[in-house]
Amino acid sequence: RLAALPAAERHRTVLRLVRSQVAAVLGHGSAEAIGPDRAFQELGFDSLAATELRNQLNQLTGLRLPATLVFDHPNALAVTGFVEAELAAAYPVSGDEADGDAAEDGIRRALRSIPTRRLRDAGLMDVLLELADDDGAPAHAGAVADGEEYDTDLDDDADGTVDTVPDTRGAPLAEAPEASEAPGLSGAPAAPDALRAARAETARLRRDNRRLTAARHEPIAIVGMACRYPGGVTSPEELWRLVTDGADAITPFPEDRGWDLSMLRDPEARRPDGYYAREGGFLDGAADFDPGFFGVSPREALAMDPQQRLALELSWEALERAGIDPGSLKGSRTGVFAGVMYHDYPGSDGNGSVVTGRIAYKLGLEGPAVSVDTACSSSLVALHLAVQALRQGDCSLAVTGGVTVLATPGVFVEFGRQGGLAPDGRCKSFAAAADGTGFSEGAGFLVVERLSDALRNGHEVLAVVRGSAVNQDGASNGLTAPNGPSQRRVIRQALANARLAADQIDAVEAHGTGTTLGDPIEAQALLATYGQDRPRERPLWLGSVKSNIGHTQAAAGVAGVIKMVMAMRHGVLPATLNVDAPSDQVDWTTGSVELLTGQREWTGTGRPRRAGVSSFGISGTNAHVIVEQAPAAAPTTPAAPGGADDVAPVPAAVVPWLLSARDRDALRAQAE
């Protein structure tokens, strides 16, 4: 019955229904007590009230609204708009109404195809302007001033570029009259010459447009990676071994940091042992550092934030693993982009900006040096900024990543008070048993450059970044509450930047912190984007490295990138741990998305393997990156005539194992 009402009346009726149900759930006497645009958070909504409202609206409308309804649509007006859209999809308008809409659209399209000059000559412009749309846009808004027509067909060119030059495809090819034959144009240049010049200029502009578009979307090569993560992980290979072994890197709190663990006592005793938390993910030897290697005095090293020391080490290591001598970059336009969110050390040595500044200073880099603090999305936002800087020519090479070292147990105390920590310190990503997040330390750094530069420089390409996007939740249901519509938007923006369709992505390395609110919102956003228009036999595979190593915060996004690069190179999708069953707060039937509850082969599809990586900051900054398998390397020798079976086996050879150090004693210590 609601769907059959005229649009304006339907909107008023649904809004009244939503406001009355909100009032009933909160115990108010009438719907008038509920402002249409007042945030549910301000009204005192919690998860129980949100569930009750969703259930009541489902019963009254016959719809199947998601459990995340209130968190995705933060006030009565927003819920009304969503319910109206769902009603329209569930109960389509009648044929007569649809025909009327189609006829009106046809008239609009016909008007937009007529040059403005012809409408003006026919005396119709004033009439059409008087009949302008309600929103103030003229009915003929598609026309270009002075009647000049432009080619805006996105599919006109095979490479998908958009042409923004005058459309000359309809220009006559026959020669025009000579200038002397044209009345009033004596002495004018010959029309054929002018036409040829115009066509040549058009061709040049098209070439320039394609070149600029290609530069704006050029894949960015990942040519080096280095990391430290819980579980004794000191390299990407060790991280890969940890996740494929299904290892759990969560351990008791370290005893060598001087932490006062009495701070972690819970006065409400919500855990049997009376503590907010007793376990997390921690780095071995987080305080270890060789100051002499970087020309740092012992006194300065003691005052340095361990995050700066670790970022400096990993930047150097990532460059070496890329086959680049760090010392050779002095004076180059190499950029540094790093995520960092803890600033526990006093003075300038605890300033987040010094993390990237110190790397640039020690290596003599003269490109952009930008530290990013968007909390948990910091390292993925840093990668996005590095990609943009490379495509825009701000730098020729970039080091990017994120680092988290916990100098105090403060984050465990604060989140413990709010009831946001998993009692056992483990992230149960998208699981029915999800009961909070588990915090960890970590660091990961990448070396990235334009793909064309990587191939020209002979650098091994580990994978490429096809596209990325960053956005904000805006006026959502709360400053720290995740927002599903914003997550859907950032995914679609990243796909558009990569110029890919959702069904061309095989897997997503999710944010997946294991919270009862955040995981369902993220899963529904993935179902609404990647889960649509793809066959059930080829679902989007969903996992999270947080189930192995915990939530490494400013280093979380880059951990997901490193994991997926290694997965592409090995052709394996690792399992996500701690999943007793998929969350019952997610309607998994609304799309083709499946949890990686077991390890599986990443089978070929006739195209490169691709994955999305998500990170969402607690203050509302969302990031999504599309990573693609490295392009196949060109063969250096001709293939054998008879195929691989005819190639003689190559005997094992002794190869050097390279070590580097500043002096002989340090080198010998490494070798031993």
Describe this structure in words.
This protein has helices at residues 7-26, 40-43, 47-61, 69-72, 76-90, 95-112, 116-121, 125-130, 191-216, 236-244, 298-303, 306-321, 353-363, 378-392, 410-417, 451-457, 484-498, 518-529, 546-549, 556-570, 664-671; strands at residues 220-228, 251-252, 279-280, 334-339, 369-372, 397-404, 442-450, 463-472, 507-509, 540-543, 572-573, 593-595, 600-601, 610-616, 621-629. By secondary structure, the chain is of the alpha/beta class. It has three domains: 7-90, Non-ribosomal Peptide Synthetase Peptidyl Carrier Protein, Chain A; 159-169 and 193-216; 221-629, Peroxisomal Thiolase, Chain A, domain 1, CATH 3.40.47. The strands form three sheets. Strands 5-4-6-7-1-8-15-14-9-10-12 form an eleven-stranded mixed β-sheet, sandwiched between helices. A hairpin with a 4-residue loop joins strand 14 (610-616) and strand 15 (621-629). Helix 12 (306-321) crosses helix 13 and helix 17 (484-498) packs across helix 18 (518-529). The model is unreliable at 132-188 and 635-647 (pLDDT under 50).
